Predict the structure of Regulator of protease activity HflC (Stomatin/prohibitin superfamily).
Amino acid sequence: MLLVTLIPMFIVLVFIIVLLSSLYVVKQQSVAIVERFGRYQRTAASGINIRLPFGIDRIAARVQLRLLQSEIVVETKTKDNVFVTLNVATQYRVNEQNVTDAYYKLMKPESQIKSYIEDALRSSVPKLTLDELFEKKDEIALEVQHQVAEEMSTYGYIIVKTLITKVEPDAEVKQSMNEINAAQRKRVAAQELAEADKIKIVTAAEAEAEKDRLHGVGIAQQRKAIVDGLAESIKELKDSNVSLSEEQIMSILLTNQYLDTLNTFASKGNNTLFLPSHPEGVEDIRTQILSALKAK
């Protein structure tokens, strides 16, 4: 009776074990390659799946469908014989419509992609100078992407994006470039400073010239005012009832002008005055001035 009771339980246990071994789970954004007796059977999608137990069906691999990134460093030479190191990042993924080729045709897809990128870069970069490489690195990356994408599509891979993240010239070349750039900046700075000094000098000269011009205008106006004043005084004296000759009028005015000049000289803080040593000195000065005017 005990044996009869255990047999159903044993059958149930075996069934449960077989059932559990037949069930398997595939994660989201991945697929499972199922083989039967070593031959491809099917591609299992994400979720719960069933396979034949006892090793008849086995999961050969689980393939990621998510976006992957490969980073490589490529050393090559430009057209002007400068060695450069390029850091390249390639984003790729498995084509969901061609998973079997992605798994069975390539053993190491990442290495294969790197080889294609290195070959493409070593074909494109030597056509450009170092300056052109810096200017057109995005165009080169796009060209490499198209070339590698075409090759890898036959193996079930999609190249989403290729980026040249860094262009590093040889250390000596980089130092030389920095020195040239520094020298150019210093030359521009010197030119700017020289131009600024030139502007200062020209501005100062213009200011000095304007000052002299205004000073001359002031002197001319001053002299004109003096002459106008003398003319007005002469006219007033002529129109007055006092009978004076022109020579007498000029003598009075010149003497008055002379005394005004002495007064102005004394008002500027001078403590010494040079005057004639005898009373007739003033008359001598007047006579000398009149003689000078007549001589002219």
Observations:
- The CA atoms of residues 91 and 161 lie 5 Å apart.
